[in-house]
Amino acid sequence: MIINVNIISGFLGAGKTTFLKKIIPNIKGKIALIENEFGDIGIDGDLINDKLPIKEIYAGCICCSLVKNFKDSIEELALKYKPEHIFIEPSGVGNLSDIVKVCKKISENSDLPIRVNHLITIIDVSAFDDYLENFGGFYLDQIQNANVIFLSHIDSVDDLKVEEVISKIKLNNEKACIIKDDWYSYEGKEIIEILDTIKNIEVDLKEKSLSIPASKVFSTVSIANPKSFTEEEIDRILNSLKGKDYGYVLRAKGILELDTKKFIYFDFTPHHFHWDYVEGFKETKLAIIGSELKRQKILQCFKNKHTSKALSRYPKF
């Protein structure tokens, strides 16, 4: 039995976890999932169906510093659960080409019947120019090596901007199938129907002139058991993250408890942010990724001095 590997890539906050939550309930056959977080605390795995076999790999990228963990996770899932599909959600700062190379090596060097099926990249249209200018190498790798590209947050820009972004994508990847529609409004089964019409591809990776590990570019601060907040405080903090008081925050997300004892999930990028009430959570935690992060300022904002545990990593040269 062939194990189809589908990789859902996209830069920080593009919508990878939302995409997975839509399609996973509509996939036929046994499924396993690998979640990779650049931060030191796993969060996205908690948001996915907890009945699935999930391997969470955090504190780095599976394309570089955590390659062995990644190989071991694929092999364990394949041998223990014998899934028909393995979905991989890499870190938003991971190189898609390197992840595919690892998958190919596993297939070539083991008896596991692994086949790379779809290389899906989700692109936040509203952040496209900003991320292309500031993080070109990481960003372009995810675009150039995809065979399917979904656009997200198209409702925050006009049609002219969407077409401009599509033209720039085609300059970097003329072979990929680009889905222009707003997939947020689609049912999961409709997205599956779209993917089923797209043929599997022979992986043809684009060579990179220089590969810089994410650990040399991005920093992260993670906090377990942060303090509780009021709704007004949450709104104020998310707005303040757009400035430079905390450094250049590219992504912040987590589960927090309000002073009302209710729990919320918050999600921040410089271009959009929100929070929603959630149920079924007892553990609070958050992760922040960016560059030149101001650790003490972040800890002062979120850390409970009696119960919190904080972890951080900064670029190593």
Briefly say what this structure is.
Keywords: Chaperone, Hydrolase, Nucleotide-binding. GO terms for molecular function: hydrolase activity; nucleotide binding. The chain is of the alpha/beta class and 317 residues long.
Kindly describe this structure.
The protein has two domains: 3-196, 3-Layer(aba) Sandwich (Rossmann fold); 218-313, CobW-like, C-terminal domain (Hypothetical Protein Yjia, Chain: A,domain 2), CATH 3.30.1220.10. The chain is an alpha/beta fold and 317 residues long. It has ten helices and 13 strands. The strands form two sheets. Strands 3-2-4-1-5-6-7 form a seven-stranded parallel sheet, with helices on both faces. Strands 11-10-9-12-8-13 form a six-stranded antiparallel sheet, with helices on one face. It is globular. The termini are far apart. α1 crosses α8 (188-196) and α3 (67-81) crosses α4.
List keywords for this structure.
globular; 6-stranded antiparallel sheet; chaperone; Rossmann fold; Hypothetical Protein Yjia, Chain: A,domain 2; 10 helices; 2 domains; alpha/beta
Strand order of the largest sheet: 3-2-4-1-5-6-7
What's the order of the H and E elements? EHEHEHEHEHHEHEHEHEEEEHE
Counted by DSSP, the helix tally is 10
Instruction: Tell me what portion of residues adopts beta-strand conformation.
Output: 25-35%
The main sheet comes to: 7 strands, parallel
CATH arch. level architecture of the largest domain: 3-Layer(aba) Sandwich
Which structural class is indicated by helix and strand composition?
alpha/beta
Indicate the radius of gyration in whole angstroms: 19 Å
Number of domain modules? 2
Stretches where pLDDT falls below 50 for ≥5 residues?
Answer: none
Shape: globular
InterPro entries: CobW-likC_sf, CobW-like_C, CobW/HypB/UreG_nucleotide-bd, P-loop_NTPase, Zinc-reg_GTPase_activator
Keywords: Chaperone, Hydrolase, Nucleotide-binding
Catalytic activity: GTP + H2O = GDP + phosphate + H(+)
GO molecular function, one term: hydrolase activity
